[in-house]
Amino acid sequence: MFINNSTYFTLEEAQLSTGGDAGTLQFVVRLNNGGSQAVDFNAYGVKVTDDSGLSYAARLTEQQSARVQPGENRDFRFTAQVPPGEKASQLKVDIVAWDYGSSSVSREVGGLHVANVAAEDTNVKRTVISLNEADSSLPQNATVSFTAGRSILVSEDGKSYLYTDVMARNLGSSNFKLPSAVKFRYKDSGGELYTASIQQGGDQTLLPKQDRRLVFKTEVPLAAANGDYTLETTYTKDSQDVVMGSLPLGPVSEAAKIGENVPYSLTSDSGLKMMAQKAVISTQDDGLHVQTTVTVSNYGSKVETPPRLSASYQFGTEGAAVSSADLAAHDTYISPQETENYYFYAILPSGVDPKTLSMALLENGTASSVSAPPKHRGLARPEPMAAIPAPAIVAVLARTAAAQAPAVQTAAAPPAPDQARAARAPGQAVPAAQALRVPPAAPVPATHQHPYRHPAAGLRFRW
After folding, report:
1. What residues have CB less than 8 Å from 454, skipping those under 6 apart?
2. What pTM does this model have?
């Protein structure tokens, strides 16, 4: 779109994300100055218009010099909130020139069609908010995008908690933290609201053009646990909650099946995939013994750090759960095309129906003490644990035909640490000797890390 014989605007890129209660269009307008004089971008305005004639405000997300010198090209990044369901073919970016001598204050320069450059992905759940709206001490371009990952349900102390993995990206040009004035809440499909807390990443500084992982948590009633949810960002003005943005989360993630590879993270470029490879259930005199082998494989091209995992075996309809630490030792890194094996073991109360059993994998933080895994049947966790879902929020043991073992079972010893951390090709079967079978009343290794945990890579498995 030319403004004279040698100076013109182009639309360089556009990303349209729609779904839930709102849509977001992020785009770049380039001013190409081929003339002999500087051009001031402040002389122009930008808005988004749909094919019905409705217009939507565009917000500049980067602060920079508006003066474009002769022979220079400069990009200006914008974001605009559009109605849900809009398509790229329905939208254009309109450029106006300010004309304060006219009654309309502006005149149309022309429009740039979004469909010509748009990457349209209705599967991406994203919203963009301006933090300056809630905290005027922040720069005008303190803008952040939130992209939703998995949401999983975890039982803790007889209650149900929803954990959601969200990637926050600073779209501005300066560092900032999420201000205390900004609050978050979940909204279910029936309009009920649940206060959310940030379990991980809330105190981190957001660097320009960098991603930071946030983990949100809220308690939800069991009856509403599997509905569709939206994460709302709010602040308070005149004693009223003002909604700044709505991030559609969709339904709670379904359980992965045993033997199914699941990406460790939906919001990062990690090449790690996780799989509940094997689950063995044995009915014994002191309860239901459950042993699970989980693999983490590196399908990417770069070295990755293995996650520190623990497990929560969940059963019944009242939020009952028993925890297990990882019984294996691990290398510091997972090289491309290699696999780490994790082993979990718990004793559940007699009478638990294996068909109702699931397992949530939890990602651990730094340990502050050591403890032994449970050797009794209680429904409560043996030690208090701070739970927070980890990067992607892990998986549930899928409802498949898990082998119901005989009451007395021949068992091999748990794998030695050097065997447990031996690298294998992704997906390669674990040798039978390493399946972690425990004989009746067999002691479990007495020391291991006391996990400070948060649902890992957001995965859940179900038998």
Report:
1. 163, 199, 200, 215, 362, 363, 364, 365, 387, 388, 389, 390
2. 0.66
